[in-house]
Amino acid sequence: MTATTERVNKKASGRQPPSRDRGGMTNLGQSTLTPYLFSSPAIIAVTAILAFPVLYGIWQSLYRPEVLGAPAQFVGLQNYIDTFTDPDFGNALYRTMVFAGGSIIVSTVLGLFFAFALYRASHRLRVLRSITIAPYLISSVAAAVMFRILFNGQFGLVNVALGSIGIEGPVWFADRTWAMAVVIFTQVWTDLPLTVLLLLGGLMTVDRSYLDAALVDGATGFRRAIHVTIPLLTPQLLITIIWMSYSTVTGLGIVLPLTGGGPQGATNTLAMEMYITAFQELNFHEGLAIATFVIVLNALLTLLYIRVGRRFEVEA
Amino acid sequence: MANMQQVARPNQLPSRKAASATPAPSRLFRIGLLALPLLVLILWTVIPFIVTISVSLKTKGEVFGNFGLIPQNLTLASYQEVLASSDFRRAFLNSVIVGLGTALLTIVLALPGAYAMARFRFRGRHLLLLFVLLPRLVPDVGTMVPLYKLAAATNMIDNPLSLIIAYSGMLLPLAVWLLVGFIQQIPREIEESAAVDGATLWERIRYLVLPLSAPAIITVVVLAFREAWNEFTLVLVLTSSPEGRTLPYALFLMGDGGITNYPAAAAFALITVIPFLLIYMRFERHVVAGLTSGSSK
User: What is the ipTM of this complex?
Assistant: First the structure.
């Protein structure tokens, strides 16, 4: 018990670096300028690579050249109006929601299942944890190649296995519905180790006394998991859901090398739409309007998850 | 879920009573129930790798002729083909350069800032820290076009330096976060007594802070290398010729518009994956914590 508390404390202090001012310390002999000099490289780099591009993108989304190559002129919200009235955009938004929703549901269910499984065995089988993390360490392009092989309509193991029990598997990447299913499956496969590790970490910090109290009250097995353990995991579940939503709503890494948005646009998400508009149709300013929309959508979804998550949070 | 319920039950029995009293068959059954989800987890993780390894060891023709996992004419020809191709060699070299460069630049940019924010008390410290940490939420989609325009305007397309700078900038929030947390846990008293003994700020950083924060620095280096090694969306827009491409982009081009040579694509994917897996295994202890905190901020 003491060990658990210590671990929680350690974790807590590691999680909130900025907030503790310790009064009465000597100031280690620095001049007033030193801290600013020290911080400036990081500040400048973050400004140049992250802050500036986003602001520049929002600003330029209000401009547009009359013909390709001409200087851009201010057009107000015209790029946004054109984007929102394009039927491709509505379709892409819908597909993004299917992609994000499907990935979140599948990864949460599988993540909980595997985290519980590892929790019961992890002290004995640490090797298992190392193997589990492998999908998260490889590039999304490599994962896409592996899943194109696994789900190949002719020789892929999935269809060979289905064939051996008498089912003729679909041509996954040529079918509009199945292609999206494979995209979701691949995305979940690459990100699941993170979900499992975070949930496992959460399980390990859950105070045993809650579980024991539930047991005394007669809650066993499945019911205990649903009513006691999972609510106690709300913070970790929230983080994994926000992360999954972020990678699916804003990410290109899986979709582009796996299906390229096909067949016939069936897996064309908002991020793909932005990439195609900007870098294939070379319509940079409208691409920026889509990108801005994606950033805002992602921020709103994150706030929504946090608000909903608060309701489930239990005082622990 | 149904499985979990069954698995959860046995362990709740007080083990003292159960171990000796239970007859052997039901104990075996219980071990089976405990092991089954773990077996599923292992299969879930390794099957895509095994399938890929299997295809990489077949000939082009055998892929469509023999659906079994064991190749009949086991051959390393695809690996030789990939290793001999100039596109692969160039991309591999670029990936190594960009990976090491990103790791170095990230540390050089993050360490002084993290030290100042962890140790010094100064006006605006919290605001500056917040400013560095917040952009972790900025997605690639938002920076692709602007960074492309910036690189094109400064003639930096295909220059590995543009990738190094972009990746370092993207990793900074995480790097600063990890380092600030770590440096704050190094007892301040150590530095204070060194200062009393006449050590300068530089000497304290060089001989105390750097060695003591080695675990956090290793974590940041490995994560920075991983980002550069695996990143795909920015290299897609910041490079335009084989001279600048890294491995993920080169691999993507092999499959763009349909994979024609499956064994070669499989071999390429595996060769791409192996170096980082080796690095990771060497530093696993440090990195697991960094990986999870990377998302949880």
Answer: 0.85
